[in-house]
Amino acid sequence: MSFYCKQTMNVLGPLKYAFRISVVRPQIFRSLSTTLKRKDQPTDNSLTIKSQEGGIRTICLNDPKKRNALSLAMLQSLYEDLKNDEDNLRVIIIKATGPVFSSGHDLKELTAEKGSEFHEKVFSTCTEVMNLIQDLPVPVIAQVNVTEALLHGLISKVVPDDQVETETLKLANRICETSKEVVALGKRAFYTQILKDTKNAYRYAESVMVSNLTLKDGNEGIKAFIEKRKPSWKN
């Protein structure tokens, strides 16, 4: 069984067009060692392969011989592919070649011989990647194969292997149909409020919802819902 990984928060309840986000949990890279079966394996020798069509950017981890281990070079390559937030970018999909999505850190780089300075570089780069995934204004989807990840709350939907590509793109295209600035506001709000206690999280959400109503697309989403029509986004 395969899955795409997302987490959805609908802050405005029924006003789904005004404020909805779907984002990957960054810790998926630390938590999962799962398989991804694909027929169309890329042959490029780069550690990551980036492509973009329309508003959808796809990044493929491409070191199957090392089970796509997060070596320093892999992390640096992934960071470079993630960081460019182009105007037309709406969503990022991360997937992998070979039988394993990622086995985690490359243990050969964590030996005593490498030294503390190198180890610090590995972990600081990993932190930069995780923070970037969180800070990007667009949602990030991890397309991987599942074991027990659903039970641990790392994913939200499981589909058969032969449907994972289709379902991932379906989700990505749905995100492309939303307002980029509202999604960015929602994603930023999500990661801010989860660090707060319940009362302060609600108070923070109040201010975010007020801010949402100052956006043209925020108002358009509400009007579209009331008028029972498809919204026409400015961004």
UniProtKB/TrEMBL annotation:
One GO biological process term: fatty acid metabolic process
Localization (cell): Mitochondrion
Family annotation (InterPro entries): ClpP/crotonase-like_dom_sf, Enoyl-CoA_hydra/iso, Enoyl-CoA_hydra_C, Mitochondrial_ECH-domain
Keyword annotations of the record: Fatty acid metabolism, Lipid metabolism, Mitochondrion, Transit peptide
Gene Ontology CC terms: mitochondrion
Protein name, per record: Enoyl-CoA hydratase domain-containing protein 3, mitochondrial
Keyword DNA-binding belongs to the record: no
PANTHER family the record matches: ENOYL-COA HYDRATASE DOMAIN-CONTAINING PROTEIN 3, MITOCHONDRIAL (PTHR43602:SF1), PTHR43602
Pfam families with a match to the protein in the record: ECH_1
Function: May play a role in fatty acid biosynthesis and insulin sensitivity.
Gene: 106074709
Transmembrane segments: none
